[in-house]
Amino acid sequence: MFWLKTKIIEGEGSLRRLSKEARGYERVLILSSRSMKRHGFLKEAEDYVRGVGAEVFSIAGLPAEPSVEVIEEFLPKVKDFEPDLLIALGGGSVIDTTKALKVFYDAPELNFEEIAFIDRFSKPKPVPKLRTKLIAIPSTSGAGSEVSGASVLKKGDVKYNIVTPEIAPDVAILDPRLPRTMPAEVARNSGLDVLVHGIEAYTTKVANPFSDAMAIKAIKTVYKWLPLSVKGDDEARARVHYAATMAGIAFLNARLGLCHAMSHKAAWIGPHGLLNAIFLPYVMEFNMERSDYARKRYAEIARELGFSTAKDLVEVVRELNGMLGVPELGELVDDETFVSRVEEMAEKAYRDGLVAFNPVEPKQEEIRELYLRAYRGE
Ligand SMILES: NC(=O)c1ccc[n+]([C@@H]2O[C@H](COP(=O)([O-])OP(=O)(O)OC[C@H]3O[C@@H](n4cnc5c(N)ncnc54)[C@H](OP(=O)(O)O)[C@@H]3O)[C@@H](O)[C@H]2O)c1
Ligand SMILES: [Fe+2]
């Protein structure tokens, strides 16, 4: 099965389509991060919505890499305003926050622990039908949250997913003017997440020809355009922006794998896309050494990029990381702290639901070894 719930609106200036999408709604809540206010996009969005007669309330300071506490902090504001339309204007962090707020606004009887995928050996409670419409307007080119059914939240130091079609946005507006204001580092980190989404989605056990098409196009686009996008090239920013959503459509269907399981459990160390980029080559080597399927699939991607083998693809990923200045893990966290937490991370990653989609099912010790190899840069 291949599915996509979200209506996608794309193009320069497409933010203006908010006027059409918000028509008929009375109370519109716009959630955004600081940069969207700073660069004038929040004001522009408010104007389009007010222009069609809705009452607008905006929250402009949502943080990056959200936690359950952030949801608890902002939920009362959502409940007080009683919106009939939610608009998330920002990166994956803002969109994920808005999705979780939608869950607990529409279904206040639920709590995070019972609906989140904490452990793949126990099933979370299903999320009931939710009513409030959600429009996602990504300002980074990365997470794919504008089409995915996932909201990723930190609880303590690690990340867990809420996954349900109920939180997949109803509409995504992809206006390339927004990601053009990203600092180079945000463009790099979020763009590398797109590459990881593409490569992991292409190699899961549930990939299908339709998710493959989205994954391959996203991978090729990032490979060709991300270095230019990081430098601030306008066309490159637009291309990577659309690729991010394509990769989102790929993993919405084909899911993700061990690399994301590992980065979610190491979330205390740094930004999501950066951690994924660091772990990816190690996970790929692990998978291709143990699975003919993984080796074949990596080789297919390599050929799409003009190379030939799975090993070539690992090299390509390492070179891209090097070219974009991705640091070693040892530059982000000291040896003692990392080693003291590696067993706990390995256990939690082993229990992460995404491991079930990875082409190889790893043992907990193997995940620990992968974390350590990534740390030592071997
Ligand atoms: N739901 C899913 O399916 C899914 C998939 C993968 C990852 N994720 C999650 O998504 C999050 C990462 O999202 P992300 O990579 O999109 O980055 P992000 O965390 O949303 O944004 C990173 C930073 O970039 C700044 N920023 C964003 N857009 C900008 C713009 N246009 N101009 C200037 N600054 C801008 C923001 O700063 P300001 O605060 O100053 O605005 C923000 O602090 C992680 O929490 C990850 O776990 C979710
Ligand atoms: Fe990701």
UniProtKB/TrEMBL annotation:
Q: Which UniProt keywords apply?
A: Oxidoreductase
Residues in domain Fe-containing alcohol dehydrogenase-like C-terminal? 190-375
UniProt cross-references to CDD domains, sorted A to Z: NADPH_BDH (cd08179)
Ranges for domain Alcohol dehydrogenase iron-type/glycerol dehydrogenase GldA come to 6-176
InterPro entries from the xrefs? Answer: ADH_Fe/GldA, ADH_Fe_C, Alcohol_dehydrogenase_Fe, NADPH_BDH
- Give a GO molecular function annotation for the protein: metal ion binding
What name has this protein been given in UniProt?
Answer: Alcohol dehydrogenase
Which species is the source of this protein?
A: Thermococcus barossii
